[in-house]
Structure to design on (356 residues):
């Protein structure tokens, strides 16, 4: 039986095509695989020893006594050499007829997750992944201090098919002078729910899904790995903190330490189960709380109504004419089935490989 399911967080419908349900082994992506060779390694600007090939670092976690822009780092953050937006521009808003324009103030940064060209984020030990998560937090905190910027989005493109231009593992950050539409929809849905019920929508969702169980992939004291009820894509997976917090940048070092093995577990399961597919993950947090002098604060109740989270989408299907034209997504793997496959795989990872 096919179903149309409504996603209350993103305010959209999804078609779950249960009659043509697909197993993990049914997804094959031509040309996907390791593609490291000596030439690409020698030319890689993200490898240790190639620091002069990138713009000067903004932030780094490095060995004591080593100098900026030199070897000896674990995690390194640099401006994108070809930025979509740049910090030097002013955020000037103006109209041209019925159209609106904002000049390109913002930031575009690269978080280089390891100096080792042949390691992926999921290969790193949990202390190292914690350092990557720490770098995310520190950059969000720093950029939230710029009143021109309304949002900071952390994202990762794994493999060229998911948008990565370099094979060396890295994440990116783009700060924008407005809240992106997808994030604004989540903020609006959470706010409307809070105004109606005086409860966090995602907190309610977590409690319900833990009680129901079928879509919970893994649960720790502080986090769940979850297959959303109205998943837009096959094996779409979220990491949700069980304790309410709107702002990722407010996480403590201990919070990051608890998050690292959960992220490692998810990345390893996706890699094993789906043969290392291309994927994207995004970190959705709240906008900064400050306001420009003389302007109203648009997100006044945000501490109570929003709930930060990570969304991971394996790139297993193609968005085609129907999706673009209708705004519906067709998912050929029901989230309950995806959760079953991933739950079984994670159990094996924990028992056999001792990932956490």
């Amino acid at each position: 039986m096919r179903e149309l399911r409504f996603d209350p967080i993103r305010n959209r419908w999804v078609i779950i095509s249960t009659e043509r349900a697909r197993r993990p082994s049914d997804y094959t992506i031509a040309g996907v695989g390791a593609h490291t060779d000596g030439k690409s390694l020698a030319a890689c600007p993200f490898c240790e020893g190639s620091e002069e090939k990138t713009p000067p670092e903004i932030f780094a976690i490095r060995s004591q006594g080593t100098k900026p822009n030199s070897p000896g780092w674990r995690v390194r953050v640099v401006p994108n050499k070809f930025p979509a937006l740049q910090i030097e521009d002013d955020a000037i808003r103006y109209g041209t007829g019925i159209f609106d324009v904002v000049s390109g103030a913002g930031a575009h940064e690269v978080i280089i997750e390891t100096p080792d060209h042949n390691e992926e984020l999921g290969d790193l030990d949990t202390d190292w992944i914690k350092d990557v998560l720490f770098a995310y937090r520190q950059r969000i905190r720093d950029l939230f201090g710029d009143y021109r910027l309304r949002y900071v989005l952390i994202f990762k493109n794994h493999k060229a098919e998911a948008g990565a231009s370099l094979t060396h593992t890295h994440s990116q950050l783009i700060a924008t002078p407005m809240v992106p539409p997808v994030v604004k929809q989540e903020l609006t849905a959470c706010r409307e729910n809070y105004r109606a019920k005086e409860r966090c929508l995602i907190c309610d969702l977590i409690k319900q899904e833990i009680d129901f169980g079928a879509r919970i992939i893994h649960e720790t004291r502080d986090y769940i790995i979850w297959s959303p009820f109205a998943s837009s894509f096959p094996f779409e997976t979220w990491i949700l903190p069980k304790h309410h917090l709107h702002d990722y940048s407010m996480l403590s070092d201990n919070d990051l330490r608890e998050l690292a093995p959960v992220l490692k577990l998810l990345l390893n399961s996706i890699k094993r189960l789906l043969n290392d597919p291309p994927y994207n993950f995004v970190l959705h947090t709240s906008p900064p709380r400050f306001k420009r002098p003389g302007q109203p604060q648009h997100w006044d109740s945000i501490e109570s109504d929003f709930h930060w989270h990570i969304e991971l989408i394996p790139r297993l299907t193609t968005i085609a004419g129907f999706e673009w034209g209708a705004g519906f997504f067709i998912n050929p793997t029901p989230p309950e089935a995806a959760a079953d496959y991933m739950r079984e795989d994670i159990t094996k990872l924990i028992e056999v490989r001792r990932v956490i």
In short: Residues 32-39 have pLDDT under 50 and may be disordered.
